[in-house]
Design goal:
alpha/beta; six-stranded mixed beta sheet; Rossmann fold; single chain; 12 strands; 2 domains
């Protein structure tokens, strides 16, 4: 009986030992699970910023000009490739700053990391300064901002060079007649928008006309310049501007235009007056419709710029800034990031570098 009792006692102790082991294992597993869940939760908390959505805004002068349509296309693709949420805004027409100011304020309120803007005029400066103060990267596209403290960088065509190219071409094409030229200037408006001034004064300098103040429109005193008209950078404005200039000087033989939509309007007005064959029209943009107009002879030459590249590079810059605070740098020798320009014409002039409409079509937009 004693042996039986001893065996039962050992079995009992063994059972208790196994039960304790099982309890410990269960407790350990529970602790591990709890710890793991806690670690996962903490990891989710700390990892959240790495996966937080980065916002960016594109604010253009309008959403109808093919130039800005292409700009939006470039920004949209680059944003998708970079995992950035893009919000797009636009004014109604060139010079319409109120919608842009509202857009800037909305972008800052939404927590956007960067703003890409083609400013309608300098009225946007105070809002852009507030955006930068709030930690938003501000990049001007195509149109430099009038106050250097309102933007971190400008991504643009060298608009002064674009003007010089068409000015040199017009002068070379006219030859000896250039000294007696009658030139009409179709600007955007009278607000001295930087891109407007750069193209206008660049053209005049390229043509060989002295420009005392390259920061404003109309400082030249050369009698060859009939006058400056506000085209609003659209066909309707182009028509009205040329009608006004022809009323002042019926023998006008050169028309500078801020862009190709204005050039189309200028041609319509000249055709209506029966003068389309005796007048050189030059422009800037290089959109596909504009290149076609060069090929057909409506426009003699245009300087082609690359809005898709401006916008896509701008989005890449915002992505880099959101990642580690890196800000974009200017091209060598310039105070902005230069996205390039080419003169498009099928009537090349000696000493003026250009490409033909076939190559221009391969590079055009819109």
């Amino acid at each position: 009986m004693a042996k039986v009792a001893t065996r039962n006692s050992r079995e009992f102790e063994t059972g208790n030992h196994l039960a304790r082991l099982a309890f410990r294992e269960a407790h350990l597993n529970k602790t591990l699970v709890t710890t793991l869940l806690g670690a996962i939760a903490m990891g989710a908390v700390f990892a959240a910023p790495a996966y937080a959505e980065t916002g960016a805004c594109l604010i253009t002068k309008n959403n109808t000009n093919p130039f800005f349509v292409k700009m939006k296309e470039g920004a949209t693709k680059a944003a998708t490739d970079s995992g950035i949420k893009l919000s797009a805004y636009a004014g109604v027409k060139d010079g319409d700053a109120a919608p842009q100011i509202t857009a800037i304020e909305n972008c800052v309120a939404s927590g956007a990391k960067g703003i890409l803007i083609t400013a309608s005029n300098d009225s946007v400066i105070p809002s852009l300064k507030k955006a930068r103060a709030a930690g938003v990267l501000v990049i001007a596209l195509d149109t430099p901002i009038g106050d250097k403290d309102a933007a971190d960088m400008t991504f643009a065509t060298d608009n002064f060079e674009a003007g010089i190219l068409i000015g040199k071409w017009a002068k070379a094409t006219l030859g000896d007649k250039a000294k007696d030229a009658k030139i009409g200037m179709l600007d955007i408006n009278k607000d001295n928008i930087s891109v407007d001034v750069a193209r206008d004064t660049g053209f005049l300098v390229g043509f060989g006309i002295d420009v005392p103040n390259k920061k404003v429109l109309g400082s030249e005193k050369d009698a060859r310049v009939i006058g400056h008209q506000s085209s609003d950078a659209n066909p309707e404005g182009g028509v009205k501007s040329v009608e006004n200039l022809l009323a002042k000087e019926p023998n006008m033989n050169v028309v500078y235009t801020i862009n190709e939509p204005a050039a189309e309007g200028a041609f319509q007005a000249l055709k209506k007056a029966g003068k389309e064959k005796g007048v050189l029209i030059v422009s800037v943009d290089g959109g596909c419709p504009g290149v076609k107009s060069v090929a057909s002879g409506v426009i003699g030459a245009t300087s082609q710029q690359y809005p898709l590249l401006m916008a896509s590079k701008g989005i890449e810059a915002i992505a880099a800034f959101a990642k580690d605070g890196t800000k974009p740098k200017a091209s060598d020798g310039l105070d902005f990031f230069n996205t390039g320009v080419n003169l498009i014409t099928d009537k090349p002039a000696a000493g003026v570098p250009s490409i033909d409409t076939k190559e221009g079509t391969a590079k055009c937009w819109g």
